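1st attempt posting a full record on here, be nice pls
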Amino acid sequence: MIKVAKFSEIPEGGSKLVMVNDIPIALFNIKGIVFAWDNRCPHRGASLADGNISEKIIQCKFHLWDFNVETACAAANPNIKIKSFPVEIQDGSIFIVD
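the predicted structure (as C-alpha cells):
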C-alpha cells in the first residue's frame, strides 16, 4: 500500500491530485467515500480533479464528458472506463492498494 494523502485534506465533494509512480491520480471524497481514478479524461487527457463533482457524476470541465462515480464509466457510453485504484483508509490516511 502507498500512502497518498490524509483524509482531512479532501473536503466532502472535493478532490485532490496526487502522483503515484509518475501516474496522476485524482482522489474524490463523495459522501465520505474516497474514489481514486487516473486523473486523465479518456477523451482529451484533461484533469478530472479539476472537473465538476457531484454525488453521482464527475464531469470533465473541458468537454463536459460525464463519468459515473460508482463505475468510473462514461455516462453516455459504459464501454469507456477510467482506470480506478483500490483505496483503503487507515488512521485518517488514504492509501492506494497496489
